[in-house]
Design goal:
There is one protein chain. This protein folds into two domains: 3-129 and 279-345, D-Maltodextrin-Binding Protein, domain 2 (3-Layer(aba) Sandwich); 132-265, 3-Layer(aba) Sandwich (D-Maltodextrin-Binding Protein, domain 2). Helices cover 43% and strands 16% of the residues. The chain has helices at residues 3-15, 47-62, 81-89, 102-110, 168-177, 190-198, 209-221, 252-260, 267-281, 294-309, 311-321, 329-339, 344-358, and strands at residues 35-40, 68-73, 96-100, 123-128, 132-136, 155-160, 180-185, 204-208, 226-230, 233-234, 240-241, 284-288. The chain starts with a helix and ends in a 7-residue tail after the last helix. Keywords: Signal.
Amino acid sequence: MSGLLRWARALSAGFGLSLAPATTAFAEVSFQGETIEWIIPFSRSGGSDTWARFNAPFLSRHLPGHPEIEIVNEPGGGGTRGPNTFASRARPDGLTILGTSGSTQFPYLLGDLRVRYDYKDWEVVMVAPTGGVVYVAPGTGVEGPDDIDRLADQTLVFASQGPTSLDLVPMLAFRLLGFDVSYVFGYTGRADGLIAMERGEVSIDYQTTASYLRNVVPMAEAGDAVPLMSWGILDENGVMQRDPTFPDLPIVEEVYEMLHGEPPSGPDYEAYRAFNIAGFAAQKMVILPGGTPPEIVETWRQAWRDIFADPQYRAEVSSVLGAYEQVTDRAAEALFIEGTTIDPAVRKRILDMLSNEYAVRLSDQ
């Protein structure tokens, strides 16, 4: 059993859930001749888009009737436009699904004015943890994690979708580490941050694992990007460990200790950790509308069970998406709850920071 599944089991016990898949018999469902729209609230070539396009052919293979899967990219609103569209238009017939990310979770957790959706209204059928890597431009003079202290006297530039998007995780990490970072807001996805780095417009960036493996690894091999650290993963005891996809890169906790001589602690670290978990351990979810009939929900979950057992999928998934355990059934429900729930004290601290440091005020402050 993987560390994630052990952690999900502990969460499930705390939430009163069972990890056993449903066994109730339902009427047969078929999507033959149908086209299923998969809404991705981000631009093409980013991590979420890569994740969806990798999974789409396997969904077509394993859903009954072998429907076409159409990826619909709908960026905008700091990750809220796509889920807003899904909430207002998707019918409970299994023909429209939503791929969420931390950039759709965070605005919801923080009460963002643009949010017109409620996770409590939805059905989760799959959760995919992921990781991410921070890298810098060679012009910073940094050659690797061992000389990260060279960043101390520099003002770095970061291209951001906004402070309530998934970019909140690097913002909290950079703040914790003491980096001086100038944020340029208004980008529509992490793919745009990558383009800004390629053009020399920014000096520090991060990409989620799928995008990093696909787009940044070639840059690093060519000497055009310098990888610094990863966000890490949670083990079965909820302790942050190095990401198995990037075992040679330190995690934020290690970098903090390198710079400050002691492990991180205190409110700033607790805020970073909380949003790291919500943004990465439970980052990507496949959602159906509330009110979807149980037989359709179960059909989707069975498709994911079959995908996870598919030999081709098992052979290819790690090289594209990284070494992370994707889950369905009660394990997905437990991570769904964890990723869409926030401690009020942490929420207030983040809202105060956004207001005081970035002049971002949300509707319910």
